[in-house]
Amino acid sequence: MPPAPPCPCSSGLRYRECCARYHRGQAEAPDAEALMRSRYSAFALREVEYLWRTLHPEHPDRARPKEDVLRELRAVASAHKYPRLQVLDRQPPDATGTAVVLFHARIFEKGKDRSFVERSEFRHDGTGWRYLSGEALAPGALPVPPESLTLANFPTAAAGAGGS
């Protein structure tokens, strides 16, 4: 029997012990970081229904027709390779219930580096943690190497750049 594959979220765990239970609806991610990791894995594994389900009700894509969003997510997930995720920093929920995760997503499209660093906001909707919004920058647009970033020194003037 071949060994179980590693989880695409770069946790070091096997997929079945990590994000699989979230993708299958057997459990909710216990915190914002786990949700963010499971969403990265969902892109890597083309689990687009999970990506839809874990969008916060206030995310702009929730106001669009579900089938349109799913079609776009399928196209994005299929066109890219997702070799590595690195969590750079995290902040627990604030007074509004919003938690923040800063991460570096390594992504490639037909051999071209499409990697980015994103400051993502997550909020619990009463059922589980959900992706609310994000500000993303290409590593080349950063003042320091991605590995040196924290939430305190992420250039938040990047308004308008959003991730999924």
TrEMBL record:
InterPro entries: NTF2-like_dom_sf, YchJ-like_M. It comes from the Bacteria. Residues 31-134 form the YchJ-like middle NTF2-like domain. It holds the Pfam family YchJ_M-like. This is YchJ-like middle NTF2-like domain-containing protein. The lineage of its organism: Bacteria, Pseudomonadati, Myxococcota, Myxococcia, Myxococcales.
